[in-house]
Amino acid sequence: MTPLLIVLAALLALAVVSLWLPPLPAIASPRRIPAWAVGLGAALAVAVAARAVTATGLAVVLLLVALCAAYQRSASVWLRVLLFAAIFIVALAMALHKAPGFHNPLLVTDIRTSALAAPVTQYLNIDKATAGIILLAFFGAPARTRAEWCAALRMWPVMVVTPVAVLGCALLAGVVVWDLKLPAHTPLFLLSNLLVTCMAEEAFFRGFIQGRLLEGLRGKRHGVVLAIGVTSVLFGIAHLGGGVPMIVLATMAGVGYGIAAWRSGRIEAAILTHFTVNALRFVLVTGPVLVRTTA
């Protein structure tokens, strides 16, 4: 990693962490500036200098911010539906690395975590992290008080049951096998997984999609079940690349993440549950991605 890339990675991580920091005072103004906006702005400035983000990429970022702000300010049901669809498309494109103007730097390539695991190639996913930061800022209401963090941590039973159920089913189905490992790049993988993968995916699925469905179905019979179920199925479909077993297991995991977010009212509960599943999967079984094994 070059010095510029190290600075970029550090600033992107700081931008994510700044979601949980209080707003910063503005110069010569009584208004306060969201810490995440300052952090993300600094990270994107370095990304432009490193040629990892172009002017087109910045335009995509501004478009997503504008759409989210318009959604929150709109009182029209139909306009909010249209804005929801637009946010969904733009954020999904960024998460899937289909949005133009982003050239994610390569961090590690063809690294084998063990003899049983597929090679790992890891990028600094600026587009996905940026989309997650924006969605979490607008729709996730990051915890800022001790009481809010305690509400999230009270979901520890879900954080235990979800990985046991998901990994247990994966093992029973033969999708993975036991493969205890701690490769040299474990800290890099875990940090990236927490601050980018888990944060961005939970911001999109639980913060944005499930949150909006719960709003729309409030007071409806089985509204909560429908909101969590639909979101979990979409989360499973997002793992289509892993085949049918991965879709089923991801849907199961999504139910756990959805329950954690709903019961606690905190997105942090879903992020921590998601991270627990991914971390244990990485350390205990063939991975970091679920792969079929042969005798």
From TrEMBL:
GO molecular function: endopeptidase activity; metallopeptidase activity
Protein name: CAAX amino protease
Every CAAX prenyl protease 2/Lysostaphin resistance protein A-like domain range: 185-280
Keywords attached to this entry: Hydrolase, Membrane, Metalloprotease, Protease, Transmembrane, Transmembrane helix
Keyword Calcium: no
Pfam (any one): Rce1-like
Record InterPro entries: CAAX_protease, Rce1/LyrA-like_dom
BP GO annotations: CAAX-box protein maturation; proteolysis
Lineage of the organism: Bacteria, Pseudomonadati, Pseudomonadota, Betaproteobacteria, Burkholderiales
Membrane-spanning parts: 38-65, 77-96, 123-143, 155-178, 190-209, 221-238, 244-262, 269-291
Superkingdom assignment: Bacteria
